[in-house]
# Entry
Amino acid sequence: MFAGQGRQIHICEVTTRDGFQIEPTFVPTAAKVALIDELSRTGLPKIEVTSFASPKAIPSLRDAEEVFRGITRASGVIYSCLVPNQRGAERALAVKVDEINLVMSVSETHNLANLRMTREQSCAQLAETIRAVRHSGIVTNASLSACFGCPMEGLVAEADVWRFSERLLAAGAGGISLCDTTGMAHPAQVAGMVEEFRRRFPTAALALHLHNTRGMGLANTLAALQAGADRFDASLGGLGGCPYAPGATGNVCTEDLVHMLEVMGFTTGIDLGLLLECARHLPEIVGHDVPGQVAKAGRIRDLHPEPAWLAEVREKARERG
Ligand code: COA
Ligand code: ZN
# Structure
């Protein structure tokens, strides 16, 4: 039987970045700050707070500096941010983020749509940024979008995933996130890619950024766990999606993931009760229902009272012998 046996799993919460970047209605800065402060009290080890993208490209996160300045940083929490280019890194450094998560796509078409650069131009700029940031003591991570498929190109060459991973790690990236931007991955593919990453880069930190676009998010997570992965991005309520990847929808839902890990015996350090409270505020913040399921159904150990009429049924069954 595959079980957690106390294995430590690191979760990075991304709803205020991946989730809010695609929300049609601007989430007010104060509401973003309040939610991040609430999430900071749940035991999450890392929160991807926002993104320092061009405000023209991602208008919903145009308040990135204000959000970073507004939050109360809890000790033990890494406050990360997404950065698409050098200008973004300068903005992130100015507000003293803990970690910079640089992003590029392994699909040429998605990279052009999302970042308005070729993959080569992005990779060169990110590598340069990593080298520049290395001396500031701030950790960098590199997220590779569309690793498991691109909605415009279809399958991407796995060799490209390893080529860009290698270049960004060689530049000094602290880790790589393999991103399934539009939920095109399946469990067998995820297991194979995790094994291959670990074979090629045995000392590099690896994270999985999985979307539930086709309902395979938790299945893919399980496959990654079995292949040895222990770092995952996830979003409260299961919000999320890249506005420049056609058909993109939400990430793996954080509270559903933590619930699954907890019942399987993994350790996350997260208080699921507090996390569910955050999740239950989310529909009010974004003004619509969210995909997460455990916040609606309750935990498997949250029992419902039996209906009052059952006493009569039980009594009749007893009389029948
Ligand atoms: N933050 C703020 N402003 C930025 C910026 C950044 N990171 N990068 C560029 N700009 C500004 C420039 O200063 C310039 O401003 P100006 O018009 O006032 O002179 C303008 O944006 C254009 O700069 P340019 O370098 O030509 O950028 P671009 O228009 O080609 O856009 C990106 C390139 C990468 C900045 C943009 O495509 C982007 O932010 N993409 C991110 C998309 C994203 O986050 N997707 C979801 C996550 S996967
Ligand atoms: Zn994503």
Summary: The first helix runs from residue 15 to 19. The beta strands are 10-13, 46-51, 78-83, 99-105, 139-145, 175-180, 205-210, 231-234. The domain at 10-319 is CATH 3.20.20.70 (TIM Barrel).
